[in-house]
Amino acid sequence: MRFTPEELEAARDKLLPDVVAPGLRVLFCGINPGLLSAASGHHFARPGNRFWPALHLSGFTPRRLRPDEQGELLSYGLGISNVVQRATARAGELSAEEFRAGGAALAAKVARLRPAWLAVVGITAYRAAFDAPKAVIGPQDERVGGARVWALPNPSGLNAHWSLAAMAEEFGRLREAAENA
Questions:
Q1: Which residues are within 8 A (CB) of 67 and not within 5 positions of it... i.e. 6 or more apart?
Q2: Which of 25, 109, 129, 179 has the fewest CB neighbours in a 10 Å radius?
Q3: What is the residue extent of each domain of the chain?
Q4: Residue 43 is a catalytic residue
Q5: What angle do CA 117, 128, 176 make, to 5 degrees?
């Protein structure tokens, strides 16, 4: 997948459709789509993003899916959405108001779709969207839209604090909790 700088810039502010269905085991929720994801129409599309490898290594999927296979997630009871829907080059372009509004919209979506777990992929996004400044990675005490919540590390290749192995282990803790629910 190759896009010109002009094609990527044209994806700015585009919306990336969710991959969702009612009654999912886990609804994964990214911060917001990047320009490559919006241009391609696929979540977590940047080659350095570790979402797809972590999902597989944790046991959520029997093989590593490619971003263009995101629709297969539904067959495993999994889905993808975002806290903020509009695409940007960096999450730092989003305002606090966008995070709060995105959190409210996400809570309504979760209440409508009724997943067992909401997994917010990025602790900073979770903190900003749900006014939880002291939240840490892992299960949260609060529920969102009736779903239990797990904050996961941001799988971006820029997140050097988490190795792929450690990230997959945390995803695996969520998988075990979802299976035992």
A1: 37, 40, 42, 43, 44, 45, 52
A2: 179
A3: 5-179
A4: yes
A5: 25
Annotation marks residue 82 as catalytic: no
Distance separating the N- and C-terminal Cα atoms of the chain: 38
pLDDT digits (tens, 9 = 90+) for 72-112: 999 999 999 999 999 999 888 999 999 999 999 999 999 99
Looking at residue 34, what is its pLDDT? 93
Question: Which one is catalytic: 42, 43, 49, 154?
Answer: 43
* Whole-prediction pTM: 0.95
Which CA distances in Å does 136 have to 27, 42, 94, 115, 130? Answer: 19, 28, 21, 21, 13
Residues 25-55 as b or e (16 or more Cβ within 10 Å = b): bbbbbbbbbbbbbbbbebbbbbeebbbbbbb
Task: Give pLDDT tens digits for 127-176.
Answer: 999 999 999 999 999 999 999 999 999 998 777 789 999 999 999 999 99
Classify domain 5-179 by CATH number: 3.40.470.10
Q: Where do runs of H (alpha helix) occur along the chain?
A: 5-10, 35-40, 51-57, 96-113, 123-129, 164-179
- For residues 91 and 46, is the Cβ–Cβ distance under 8 A? no
